[in-house]
Specification:
Chains A, B: GO terms for molecular function: acyl-CoA oxidase activity; FAD binding; fatty acid binding. Two copies of one chain form a homodimer. Chain A has about 725 residues and is of the alpha+beta class. The first copy, chain A, folds into three domains: about 80 residues, Acyl-CoA dehydrogenase/oxidase, N-terminal domain (Butyryl-Coa Dehydrogenase, subunit A, domain 1, Orthogonal Bundle); about 160 residues, Butyryl-CoA Dehydrogenase, subunit A, domain 2; about 325 residues, Butyryl-CoA Dehydrogenase, subunit A, domain 3 (Up-down Bundle), CATH 1.20.140. Chain A has 24 helices and 16 strands. In chain A, β1 and β2 form a beta hairpin. In chain A, α10 runs antiparallel to α11 and α18 packs antiparallel against α20. The longest helix of chain A is centred in the middle third of the chain and has 36 residues. Chain A is globular. Chain A starts with 8 loop residues before the first strand and ends in a 5-residue tail after the last helix. Chains A and B meet through β1, α1, β3, α5 and α6 of A and β1, α1, β3, α5 and α6 of B.
């Protein structure tokens, strides 16, 4: 990135009170973002005699003033955030006790030199990988030393927020082995796995296939004579690819391969345990070609790898045969239908939503703190420039992200509760219900990942030029989180699942109107009563959660009805649009439940949080959210006789709630209780001294450790000397 | 990033014909994007016996088939793209001749070993910087060797698409010196600058100030006794920051500093030429502290730097005094109003829009080619999986980006023409008109930068998992282009300018209805006739450019009117919303002009291009574009008695035009004529063999050059050994 500050030419727009400057930079390819507009308030004829205050000292003052303004008790809000299930889905505990355990673990971690983050910004992949291994080693030691539960270990990982190869061992290799391995195989490996005596990875994705597992090409052919399976990669596209920890770390792997029976019958993908590297010197086993797939977005420290198998033999017992098995003489035995896994899905669902919330929380803390101490542009009554956060275009972008982070954290808790409540029904085999929950999960996944990615980038852009510095911290967060969008690469699948379930419920409703509706299709009840009691919109209603939630349910109901009635002529965007409508209605009702719980809190805290959650509800309806279009299209929002624009009241209401929230913005972010070490952002330092921190970090840049210029002797010097030679020998101008 | 392929548990959704698998990975903080949904078509009971074809060979076949399908003459479309002003704003030339010169320069460049791109993905900042200097040196030699005009040199930079420190010398330092330096100063330095005898940078932005130049803190105090200026950085926040090429490269700089006269009067920011480094050994001059500001988004090879001045003296003649000057005895002489700069603005405006087009062109070429050869999911009649581009959710995302790239390229040309036509009026001092054009430029800047950033990311996500690999190529493009969003950091300023000009024109219209409207406010004419002849919407109209353009003009007119009538109660988002409405109306009318020019072409090519431009028009109205909300809110789009949803016809029309464009998608991207060398993307190779290319590039990863694992001895080995020791000594299970 280049300097944002150059200007070549000036055009005075008389009377506008501004100076417009623009410059041409770079070849056209680069020029677009080199162009720079600048508006300078003209004092008289460009003369300014104001004495500027000490901007650096001012940053700390501004942060202190912001904290003095906070209207609520910080600990109450903090305990609300850390309430049960808010960080992990562990056993129910009070928010206070959750936070204390969180705090205790962090105190241990931040004392460890190995976990120091100051070098992260300057090291290449190899160094980053070595650092990750060192962190992994120390983390394992600490877990033993303090006898952390697996939940506490997970909390430690969350606090560290580093990408480590070990993650794949703990959360992919281990559960797959335990979940699908035979008792004998589990007995043989369990202790080695638990104590990290081996390092595992999980090999499924291939160069040619991600989504469609049925088309994986790797084969495992059973040889009855020797009672072995022969693993083989028949084609280039069958190369295992993207496999975390395979590149350099793993000693063992579980491979997804098509099981081929004697006689050549292919019975589809099954799992096999394979040793990849020697436990003596870590060298690759014969017949295995493996390596790292190269740099990618985020996760520099992770060795995503590739592997090819050339007729590699493994013993019969290494097939993971808990559900499907092959007898020693080569007969295939059908898989059963595993119900055990539901609890696992619960865990995922909770952490998926909650994690999105905590990730947004980090980004928005940085953005709100910086926007509070950064002053630019218009002057306030004290002759100071205005705090950036005071500009409508800034708080209008940032506050909704803050509210979403709170909602996702609470929603994760809420979702677990409601889904846990219904776990019984599913254990009893109510698969229709399971299907509906699964569809809702797809919708939630799309919503939280999309919102978190957008939210992080919006927060980063609100940082202005300094937001592009790696020291700002959000850029790294974005790159590491971005892969969540891969699910979006699959949105047509996920949205399709949501839509399928919604249409199914609708058709049931039409065929059997008095059939009870599931938790996630309750909005369809509105179609029973028919169109008669559609809501009537008034300016007031935008201040009421209930009214907005009702509107969003109506939108979902009418969208599903319209889609069902036009299912013979779908448009290209229908799945995306419909899935959004259904999921946003669900989220809105969940927010309603969260808000009603707030009455346990004292009035001050309750009302502050209610505003925060109200902002989410109204924001769900703004254009970017597509809901507004639907409300207007379905005439749920109609122009009153005296109105030119029926959306004005909503926009005014959002501005009003933003202005109520503004004084508490810093307080809401402080309630996350991120330490400076954990947040690791020059623009998010809690004392507000962002300029000192930027300066300090820039001094660590390797290029600044010497006064010499790399490449000077080879390139720069000869070029300059040749230029001077020609210049002195040239008589006329060019 | 981690493997996308793991699965721990399976829940069979009976009767759904799908298997749903999910896995818990990582601590909650990581789990969200580790969660993986997979739907596998069940063949019988998980049994698949289909013989898969050679996927690798298929990629090349698919690409060839796509090319065979193209309905138009490639050269005609190519020449349309390269038409005059389409690449730079040089003298008018035919598209054919533009392309030939383009092609000739590229042939020269891609032969140069120094310009090889294969190492780019693996080197750190220092190596990247050294590589950039070597490229700069060779590029300078080639320019002399082939006697390239400055326009051809710019074209060469565009083809190279590398970030080079030299850019700041050519496009910031040089024009500022020439534009604002006195004749004596220019005479003294011109040849040195032109022949790269010195390397310049431009120091304006400070740690504490970007936008508000009036508040820059660096001072230049005139000392009449010695006829010198004394440059000084009084505070930490006055440190010059983000300055391109300052960190390690520049020998000279032009500094923006507050001019302080004898007696202490501060007359605001002025420009001063300062030597920063010795021409002997490149060491920093006394009193100057400078260095690199550290890593940032994109531009790894660029040394954005900081600098502080400790009472640094420079001679009187080094003030850039073409407009404002100080006499030797210290009297200040007022600046005049420089008109010379308009041509420069023309150049910027053209390259700004055109560049956005060519950047999108690179990204969409990669995405469409990969989506054409990538097969996944459903099976087609040949038993092959479906090409990803055939999925509605894919072409619905990609084709509008393709059309925008064409529009921005043509729009750059169009804008230059129309603005050039009116240059005279402005030269004659019609500043109101200049203000209006300036406002429109602000709007265009916001629109093209926003659309290009979004378009690049949308294209990247359409690549699925492989899109996260650096070898895909779009990630780097995105990071390098992203800073264009800094303008968006300034959107409240830019949008504000657009809105101010629009309201001004509206008020003129109200006060003096028969006053002629400027080019950029012609949409306001609709308010003259009053609401009576509002358009009536029919399904047909979505096939007509003119009708859609008319709608968008109506939307702009009513938005401005409504904003004017409610100016006393603006909502937080009004500037953003209104600016969009006005700019999109302008863009639409420009597209109309482009389309009417197409009749010069033969019917085949004309109709293909018309569809492409039609898609842009209709896309301007989709939800993400906010226009649909306005159309509905202002009742420009009303529900026909027989409709439940007035937006259905539009959605259907967009799907229809997408289906017409689909067979030509690869053809439209081939017309950009990017060579594989210039595109530098494993997923965008023109022969379609993406898997071979991914494999080839992964082998170059430094981690794969040895079989050893970095950090094995220090961390991994001891951890594994300790784990095995504990495992063997543990009796019971944990």
């Amino acid at each position: 990135m280049k300097d944002f500050g150059q200007a070549t030419e000036t055009v005075q727009l008389e009377g506008d009170g501004v100076t417009f400057q623009a410059r041409a930079v770079g070849p056209p390819a680069a020029a677009v973002w080199e162009l720079w507009f600048r508006f300078t308030l003209k004092v008289g004829n460009g003369t300014s005699t104001t004495m500027a205050p000490d901007l650096n000292a001012q940053t700390a003052k501004d942060m202190q003033e912001a904290r003095d303004k906070v209207s609520f008790d910080l600990q109450t809000i903090r305990d609300h955030l850390f309430g049960e299930h808010s960080v992990t889905n562990g056993a129910a505990r009070s928010g206070r006790r959750n936070w204390e355990s969180f705090e205790q673990i962090e105190r241990i971690l931040r004392k460890e030199p190995v976990f120091d983050k100051s070098s992260r910004d300057f090291i290449g992949r190899v160094e980053a990988y070595k650092r990750a291994l060192a962190i992994t080693k120390r983390l394992t030691e600490l877990q033993r030393l303090h006898q952390w539960t697996s939940e506490q270990a997970a909390q430690a990982m969350l606090i560290l927020s580093e990408t480590l190869p070990i993650t794949l061992h703990d959360f992919a290799f281990e559960p797959v082995l335990l979940g699908q391995g035979s008792t004998d195989l589990v007995d043989e490996y369990w202790k080695l796995v638990a104590h990290k005596g081996i390092q595992g990875c999980y090999l499924q994705t291939e160069l040619g296939h991600g989504t469609n597992v049925a088309r994986l090409e790797t084969t495992a052919t059973y040889i009855p004579e020797t009672e072995e399976f022969e693993l083989h990669s028949p084609t280039l596209t069958s190369t295992k690819w993207w496999i975390g920890a395979l590149g350099k770390t793993a000693t063992h792997g579980i491979v997804q391969a098509k099981l081929v029976l004697p006689g050549g019958k292919d019975v589809g993908p099954h799992l096999f345990l394979v040793q990849l590297r020697s436990l003596e010197d870590h060298s690759l086993y014969p017949g295995i070609t493996a390596g790292d797939i190269g740099p990618k977005a985020g996760g520099a420290a992770l060795d995503n790898g590739f592997a090819r198998f050339d007729h590699v033999r493994i013993p019969w017992k290494n097939m993971l045969s808990k559900f499907a098995t092959v007898t020693q003489d080569g007969r295939y035995i059908q898989p059963q239908n595993p119900k055990h896994s539901f609890a696992g899905m619960m865990y995922i669902r909770a952490s998926m939503v909650t994690t999105a919330g905590w990730t947004l929380a980090r980004g928005i803390t940085i953005a709100i703190r910086y926007a509070t101490v950064r002053r630019q542009g218009e002057h306030d009554d004290r002759g100071l420039e205005r705090q950036v956060i005071q500009y409508p275009s800034t708080y209008y972008r940032l506050l909704p992200i803050l509210s979403r982070s709170y909602v996702f954290i609470a929603l994760g808790r809420q979702t677990t509760k409601s889904f846990t409540a219904s776990a019984e029904r599913i254990k009893q085999g109510d698969l229709g219900y399971l299907a509906e929950i699964h569809a809702m999960l797809c919708g939630l996944k799309v919503l939280v990942s999309t919102e978190t990615i957008n939210g992080l980038e919006t927060a980063r852009r609100a940082l202005g030029g300094h937001g592009y510095s790696i020291f700002a911290g959000i850029g790294r967060m974005y790159a590491d989180y971005l892969p969540a969008a891969t699910f979006e690469g699959d949105n047509f699948v996920l949205d399709g699942q949501v839509v399928r379930a919604a249409l199914k419920s609708y058709n049931f409703l039409v065929s059997t109107p008095d059939r009870p509706l599931g938790l996630h299709s309750s909005y369809l009840r509105l179609l029973r009563a028919g169109m008669l009691n559609r809501p009537v919109i008034s300016a007031m209603m935008w201040q009421e959660h209930a009214a907005i939630i009702h509107l969003l349910e109506w939108r979902a109901a009418l969208s599903v009805q319209s889609a069902a009635q036009n299912s013979d002529h779908p448009d290209a965007g229908i799945n995306y649009r419909l899935s959004k409508a259904v999921t946003e209605a669900f989220v809105a009702t969940q927010v309603g439940a969260i808000v009603s719980d707030l009455n346990q809190l004292s009035p001050n805290e309750a009302s502050a949080l209610k505003d925060l959650y109200l902002l989410v509800c109204s924001y769900l309806i703004l254009p970017r959210k597509a809901a507004l279009v639907d409300l207007l299209a379905f005439s749920l929002l109609q122009r009153a006789p005296d109105q030119t624009d029926p959306t004005r009241d909503l926009r005014a209401a959002i501005n009003a709630v933003c202005l109520r929230l503004l004084p508490n913005a810093v307080g809401f972010t402080d309630a996350f209780t991120f330490s400076d070490w954990s947040l690791d952002s020059a623009l998010g330092v809690s004392n507000g001294r962002v300029y000192e921190e930027l300066w300090k970090r820039a001094q660590l840049e390797p290029l600044n450790q010497t006064n010499t210029t790399p490449g000077y002797e080879e390139s720069l010097k000869p070029m300059l000397e040749e230029g001077r030679r020609i210049a002195s020998s040239t008589k006329s101008r060019l």
